[in-house]
Amino acid sequence: MGTGKKCPKCDRVVPMSDDNCSCGFVFSKASLIALQGENKVERVVITDIQMSFGSMVVFMVGWALASIPAFIILFLFGLVAFVVLGAIGITAF
Predict the structure, then answer these.
(1) 59 and 65 in contact (C-beta within 8 Å)?
(2) What is the maximal distance between C-alpha atoms in the chain?
(3) Would you tell me how many other CB atoms lie within 10 Å of the CB of residue 21?
(4) Integer angstrom CA distances of residue 70 from 16, 64, 78, 84
(5) Based on the domain organization, do 55 and 27 belong to the same domain?
(6) Into how many domains does the chain fold?
(7) Distance of CA 24 to the CA centre of its chain
(8) Radius of gyration, alpha carbons of the chain
(9) Residue 54 included in any domain
(10) pTM for this structure?
(11) What is the pLDDT of residues 14-51, one digit of tens each?
């Protein structure tokens, strides 16, 4: 009897090909996911990443290149703060 889905309203087993039960319950995508238990939250802990040395070098070089715009933006914020504070008479030194 495991060839169907159980209706949560009347507990009847309905064939998987049917979209609704004889009691009137309509099986939507959300209700099917809830019935299958796919909406459970599971915690995952990553303990290891296996990566070749060449791939790691390419990854780290890409990461370093991607950080350049962030450093430029931080430098510009610091420059603006230095100019504004200098204009009102507060010196950093």
Answers:
(1) no
(2) 83
(3) 19
(4) 53, 10, 12, 21
(5) no
(6) 2
(7) 36
(8) 30
(9) yes
(10) 0.40
(11) 887 787 888 878 777 655 555 555 456 677 888 888 89
